[in-house]
Each structure stands twice: as structure tokens, then as C-alpha cells.
Specification:
Elements (H helix, E strand, L loop, with lengths): L14 H15 L4 E4 L6 H12 L4 E4 L3 H15 L3 E5 L3 H4 L2 H10 L3 E7 L25 E5 L8 H17 L8 E7 L32 E3 L5 E5 L5 H10 L3 E3 L15 H6 L9 E5 L7 H7 L4 E5 L15 E3 L2 E3 L1 H7 L2 H25 L8 H10 L4 H11 L5 E4 L3 H9 L6 E3 L10 H13 L10 E6 H6 L15 E7 L11 H4 L2 H9 L6 H8 L2 E4 L3 H9 L6 E6 L3
Parallel strand pairs: 1-2, 1-3, 3-4, 4-6, 5-6, 7-13, 8-9, 8-10, 10-11, 11-12, 14-15, 14-16, 16-17, 17-19, 18-19
Helix pairs in contact: 1-2, 1-6, 3-5, 3-15, 13-14, 13-20
Bound molecules: thiamine diphosphate (TPP) and magnesium ion (MG).
Magnesium ion binds next to helix 16.
């Protein structure tokens, strides 16, 4: 191969490069650490500045090919750290490919800063190559969208760049709005699109630390004891929901990705109990944290006549309000002193006890059903039979839940498995994340990669364990492109666990399955797919394991992976 001759003109100046270095430098000083980029010519000044900053130890650089993957990777990084990740892309469809992750970030309130390179004004609207209307392309989904004119080398431009970094970081983290989310900085660049950077830029280190906004001051609403109350914790509710349930002595109905699925007040089988006249039927007041999305019973309860609902959200643009039936909304809440005393009265104890005990009885009944009869002669054979029996969704989620500990991370894809987990797993104080903003089946591998990379990042890893992500086969196939990793970048301990049932089996449980013709149902809803995951893993350089029985599964989950691995689990449709 002929050697490439690079001609660098050290005297060439590029305002694009000067501006890009100043901008990214300021982001680093503000405490941003992760930058995801995809290659392109128009964005080269930003990309080269990013490479330089990586070399100087200022940022962790993640290079991807597909902008859709890059967007979701940034989302996962921010889910773990609470800090926005920067995303650098070139012009045209590259920008549009960020849209799914931007929408998820918008609806879930996850900070993200998009640096989208663009043509300068004189090249717009005249059919220039790779040129579209980029400012505002994400519509209402961005907290702030700035169209920044091409730098021309004016002396104050680096100051403008630094101010831009501060303004956009504030907007993404919701400093003034209490609504963290995506921000788009559309950056026009003129030729020369880059210049050689001065060698050996001094290392930059953060002087500030960006943190997600947190409500300050005391609670803005105080609850009095009184009506029969339950606490609901939807996705992202956090530990506050558990604390309030505990203080008030109220049953806690916490979804699996709520961050509040633990504690003595937890009611695992809340769906069944909400349907029972003598428990669900008696509820008079509902306190909601987070974003409930996994059951029909919760919104139905809130919409029921005579039920008073209060919704608490420390941040966000929209309030959860099923049927427009919510009575009050507040940024923070507390229980007044008499709540704790009321919780200790016989009536208070009884209310909580009935929920918790009934739920436990249902757990025990389910466990008895699966128990192997102990008989002197048959014990070994029966046990072996269980270990060798094909896996069910229940066995799969139970095993993954049992294997997960506080030093691990668990990401749950949309569809059946997260619902199965929500219906059955016991309380455990572990970090569980899911993209429930829009509950898409897209970007799940990339999101989990972001969580894994951010949680395991040296030198002070936030997690010394494993990140596991559990998803259906269509969800996996939707995001196969995210398996494409850059050589030389860290390979996180990530176990991608795929429940393979040949298609989208969630639709089998919907009303439509009873009314649609079987053939059409198969063709347009279940959408059968049959892909060789082992070959895919090999093609992308991932490790691969298959677990067809409980014994295989236990083995695969207990042997901690040393890098990224796909674990295929066949399931009966
Ligand atoms: C981006 C996106 N497209 C389509 C959907 C609708 N959808 C929800 S679940 C699902 C099927 C998921 O199948 P799979 O991942 O195999 O899970 P399973 O239902 O089989 O457990 C689809 C297509 C969605 N949520 N997001
Ligand atoms: Mg499936």
C-alpha cells in the first residue's frame, strides 16, 4: 500500500477549529465528560477538537458510525451519570437520525447536547449537497435550539463559544426551567473546515461539576393522614416514593424501573389487588411519583370517580394526568407529623397489612406451584427435570433479577419481558433503567452500552459489576447496528440477554389477536423473524452464549462476563 502523504500547512488558520476547541474546552471545564461522535466532513473541526481533548485526558470519546446509535448511546451515558453527553454529527440525514433518541430524552427528561454541523447561510436553500433545514428539526423536543453563524475569525469568537457552552449546559440540565432535556446547537462552518491544531494543547480538567437539577428547599405540599392512601411509583420515581410510603404507612405500588421497588411496604402483585373490590375498591387517595406505563390498572384507578390523586414530579414539562383526573400537581411533597402517628393506629396498620400480606400470599402461591414435590426416590430426577426444562419468561426474569446486585446495572427493553418482571419480581434495591419516555423498541442495545460504559468508566468506576440488558428478539434486531464498536475503545462488561420467541409475541396477548385473521396477525403484527444471533455476534466480534435450560442460564448469569456478550435464550411463543 502506498504511504499516504499528508501535507499540513501549519500556517493555515481555521476559525472553525478555533471555535470548536474553545467550545469543547468550555464543556470540559463545566464538567461534561462524554462525547459521542459520528464522522463527517462538515463536522471535522469539532471531531478533531474532540480527538485532541481525548488525547489531553479531558473527555471520554465514543466514536460511532450510525447516528441513531450515537443518540441512544448518549442517552444511556446520561441516564447513568445524570450529566448531558455531547453528540457531534455532520449535516443532512445524519442529524435526522438523532431524532428517536431526542424524543426519548425529551419525554423522559434526560439531558443531551447535540452539536449538529451545517452549511453557512449562503449555501442553504440552493440545493447544496447534504444540506437541509436543520435548525428546529426536532420541533418541540428540544429545550433550546440555537442556529450559530459560521465563525469568521473575529477576536471575540472564542468567548462567544465559551458562553454558548454555558448557556446550553444550563438549558440541557434544566437549571432555570427544572426541565432537563435535549438541546440542539446547530453550528455553521465555512471553509477551511479545519486546520492543524497547535501541538500539545495543555490538558484540561473540569473546574465545575454538572449535576441534574434537584429541587431545593422543603416540600411544597404536606399530606395529612386520612383517606385510604396508596403510593404509586412509576418509571424513574426514585427512592423518595419509598420514603413517603414508609413515613405514611401506605402500600407502595412500585414499577420495576421505578427505583423504589424495595422496602417493607412493597406490593408486588398490585395489578391483582387493584382489581379486588375489598382492596383496590377501597382506595381513596393516590400519590404518584415517576411515570407509570406498565399497567392499565393504575390509570384506571386514577380515573375512577371519587379517587383523589396527587402527582409529584421534581422536574419535567408535562404532568402525568390520566383522564385529566388528577387533583393536584407538585414539585415536592412531605407527610405532616400526624401521618406517622396515624400509620401506627390499628386502622393504619390494618390498611397496609392487608395489601402487603395479600401480595405475599400470592407470591407464595406462585412459588408453591413451581415447587418440585420432594419424594425420597424422585428428588434427584425431579430436580434434574426442572434444571433441564425449557425456559419460560418467568424463569428468565427471576434468574436475571436474582443475579443482579447493587453494584450491577439492569436495563429492561420494552415489550413483554419488562411486564413479566413488573408482575413478579420481589423488592430489591438495585439500579433498573428503561426507556419509558416513549417505550420504543429502538436503541435498547445502545442505551445499555451507554449505561455500561458510564458506570464502568475508569479511574473511579461507579459500578464494579455487570450491566445486563434484557429484551425481546425484535427489540434486539431493531438495534443490531449498535453492536458495531470502535476498535481500541473500552469494551464494557455488558450482557445483552435476548428472549427469542421468533417475533413480537406481545401482540398475541392483545384484543386484536382474538379478532384478526390468524394469517394477517402473523404477517403484520407478530412479524416472524429468524436470524442467527451466533453469526451476528461473530460478525460484530461479540462473545456469544446460548441458554436453553435453567442450568445453562444460571451458569451464564453467574460467570461474570469480561466484555460484551450476547446471551440467547429461546422462549416458547
Ligand atoms: C420503535 C418502535 N416500533 C414499534 C413499536 C411497537 N412495538 C411494541 S412491542 C413490539 C414487539 C417487540 O417484540 P420483541 O422485542 O420480540 O418482544 P416480545 O413482544 O416478543 O416479548 C413492537 C413492534 C415500538 N414500541 N417502538
Ligand atoms: Mg419476541
Amino acid at each position: 500500500m502506498p504511504e499516504r502523504v499528508v501535507v499540513v500547512n501549519p500556517h493555515q488558520k481555521s476559525p472553525a477549529s478555533d471555535f470548536s476547541i474553545a467550545l469543547l474546552n468550555e464543556f470540559v471545564l463545566l464538567g461534561l465528560r462524554d462525547l459521542v461522535l459520528c464522522p463527517g466532513a462538515r463536522s471535522q473541526a469539532l471531531a478533531l477538537a474532540a480527538a485532541e481533548l481525548e488525547r489531553a485526558g479531558g473527555i471520554r470519546l465514543h466514536v460511532r458510525t450510525d447516528e441513531r446509535s450515537a443518540g441512544f448511546l448518549a442517552l444511556g451515558l446520561a441516564l447513568e451519570t445524570g450529566r448531558p453527553a455531547l453528540v457531534v454529527v455532520t449535516s443532512g440525514t445524519a442529524v435526522a437520525n438523532l431524532h428517536p433518541a431526542v424524543l426519548e430524552a425529551h419525554h423522559a427528561g434526560v439531558p443531551m447536547i447535540l452539536l449538529t454541523a451545517d452549511r453557512p447561510t449562503e449555501l442553504r436553500g440552493i440545493r447544496s449537497n447534504q444540506t437541509t433545514v436543520q435548525p428546529g428539526i426536532f420541533g418541540v423536543a428540544t429545550r433550546l435550539c440555537l442556529d450559530v453563524p459560521a465563525p469568521v475569525g473575529e477576536p471575540d469568537e472564542t468567548g462567544i463559544a465559551a458562553a454558548l457552552a454555558r448557556q446550553t449546559t444550563d438549558a440541557a440540565t434544566g437549571v432555570f426551567t427544572a426541565a432537563p432535556g435535549p438541546v440542539q446547537v446547530n453550528l455553521a462552518f465555512r471553509e477551511p473546515l479545519s486546520a492543524a491544531l497547535p501541538a500539545g494543547l495543555p490538558p484540561v480538567a473540569p473546574v465545575a461539576s454538572v449535576a441534574p437539577v434537584a429541587s431545593t428547599g422543603g416540600p411544597t405540599m404536606l399530606l395529612a393522614p386520612g383517606p385510604r392512601t396508596i403510593v404509586v411509583a412509576g418509571d424513574g420515581a426514585g427512592t423518595e416514593a419509598e420514603e413517603l410510603a414508609h413515613v405514611g404507612g401506605w402500600p407502595l405500588l412500585a414499577e420495576v424501573s421505578s427505583g423504589a421497588r424495595f422496602g417493607p411496604n412493597l406490593v408486588v402483585h398490585y395489578r391483582e389487588l387493584l382489581g379486588a373490590v375489598d382492596l383496590g375498591g377501597e382506595v381513596e387517595r393516590v400519590i404518584v411519583f415517576g411515570h407509570p406505563t406498565l399497567s392499565r390498572e393504575i390509570p384506571a384507578l386514577i380515573e375512577r370517580h371519587g379517587v383523589e390523586t396527587i402527582v409529584i414530579a421534581p422536574t419535567g414539562l408535562e404532568w402525568y394526568n390520566p383522564g385529566h383526573a388528577v387533583r393536584a400537581f407538585t414539585r415536592s411533597i412531605g407527610a405532616d407529623a400526624s401521618c406517622a402517628a396515624a400509620a401506627r393506629t390499628p386502622a393504619g396498620r390494618q390498611w397496609l397489612g392487608r395489601w402487603v400480606m395479600t401480595s405475599r400470599a400470592l407470591t407464595d402461591a406462585a412459588a408453591d406451584e413451581g415447587r418440585v414435590p420432594i419424594d425420597r426416590r424422585g428428588i434427584t430426577r425431579a430436580e434434574l427435570a426442572v434444571l433441564r426444562a425449557p425456559l419460560t419468561r418467568a424463569l428468565l426474569v427471576d434468574a436475571v433479577w436474582r443475579a443482579s446486585w447493587p453494584h450491577d446495572r439492569l436495563v429492561l427493553g420494552a415489550s413483554r419481558l419488562i411486564r413479566e418482571a413488573d408482575k413478579r419480581v420481589p423488592g430489591k434495591k438495585i439500579t433498573v433503567l428503561a426507556n419509558r419516555g416513549l417505550a420504543g423498541i429502538d436503541g435498547t442495545i445502545a442505551t445499555a452500552l451507554g449505561v455500561a460504559l458510564a458506570s464502568q468508566a475508569e479511574p473511579e468506576p461507579r459500578s464494579v459489576g455487570v450491566t445486563r440488558v434484557l429484551m425481546g428478539d425484535l427489540t434486539f434486531l431493531h438495534d443490531v447496528g449498535s453492536l458495531l464498536l470502535a476498535p481500541g475503545e473500552p469494551r464494557p462488561r455488558l450482557q445483552v440477554i435476548v428472549g427469542v420467541d421468533g417475533g413480537g409475541s406481545i401482540f398475541d396477548g392483545l384484543e386484536v389477536a382474538r379478532t384478526a385473521p390468524a394469517e394477517a396477525m402473523e404477517r403484520v403484527l407478530y412479524t416472524p423473524r429468524n436470524v442467527d444471533l451466533r453469526a451476528l455476534a461473530a460478525a460484530y466480534g461479540w462473545d456469544y452464549e446460548a441458554a436453553a435450560t435453567r442450568a445453562d442460564l444460571e451458569r451464564a448469569l453467574t460467570a461474570a462476563p469480561t466484555g460484551p456478550v450476547i446471551l440467547e435464550v429461546p422462549l416458547v411463543r
